[in-house]
Write a structure and sequence with these properties.
Length: 130
Amino acid sequence: MKNMETKKQIGIWMDHSVAHIMKPANNAFENSTLKSEFTHNEKMHSLSKNENLMHNKEQHEQAKYYKSIADSIKDYKEVVLFGPTTAKEELANLLKADHHFEHVKIVVKHADKMTENQQHAFVREHFHLA
């Protein structure tokens, strides 16, 4: 009997404020977006009150943002994280420290801002999809 399990691959273009999650499915993609709660306006508001408060709030919101991304990829075998900022490395380091992801192949690549089509092409090329 052949193994019917499909390859579980997911691509995520991300920066510190938004993550575009792309799941290859039947020559197309299932797309979803996660956004960090820590907006520029929130940063300015917190900063006007107290710089320590701003940094604490930023760290808390960033941790929530990374956890929500991690939750969306926990059932996948291969993950490519790409984007223009250090957010992808920060997330990759958190995932590598978490034993829930020890069997997940995580690849981090630099990429500039991209359109949705460019992101899909990047993921297709990375995973050698048709």
